[in-house]
What does this fold into?
Amino acid sequence: MAFTHEELLEAWGDPYTNRVVERLHRFAFIPNDHLERLADIALPENWGNNHHVLKKYLAVQIAWSIEQAQFTQGNDQFYVTAGHLQTRYGTPIYLAFARNRNQNREPFYLVAVESNMSAPALPVPPEIPMPSDIPIGVEIVMMHDHILDDNSDRVPFLRDTPRVAQMCAVSGAIQWSLNRKLHLPYWYFGRMSYVVPLYLSSREDITQAPDLIAPIQVNPQSLLVRTVLKPVMPFGNARVAVQRHDQLPHWLLQAWREHAATATEAEIENPEEASAASAEAAQT
It folds into this structure.
């Protein structure tokens, strides 16, 4: 029986969620040995504990393939690319899914991970959506007036300044980075936006890690700053937004190498929620 676009979209469920790995696992059973094989044949990357960044990458990229109808089918299977992942020789990597025969389980099952997939026709990778253009000269709006409280240890020179001054410092740092096009695409809650590095203590070397990172939401008349994060925290959300990991800035890759072994799945899944949870724990 053929796989329809509507069937696959319905199986994916609501795209507006930050629990995309859970959504992937509701869509299909992913055997661990297939995940290990994918990590093994793809260009080497540090995917974190239990390959959770890889799971998130697949969850977002496969969803894009389904939404954009970038899948092929035949032999009672449907095929998508493993996002934009390639082997060491530049060959795309393909995933084959079949319907799950087990009742009351995930509707589909990952059957194979191959660079030389045998299929009637092979799919192409999904297009990575572009965030909205950033309007010039719009107001930068802080969602909270205590936006630096959770990270005051990283900017101690601002700890005792009035909150208005803190907000002005963050706003000025955002504008400085935007003027130099230092912002990065960033997937969040089913849509693409940006994160902006905040150089608050030094701007002598922008290849070094910034003090903080600000996720911003682009609105027609404003840029909304929801929170600020430690530089490494958006790695998983930034990784899905580029074709290759080396397209990320050096400072982010370096920060991830140092942090990957201790990064939690909750932090990778939703860095903004994890940051809020850490702040609440610190205050109790």
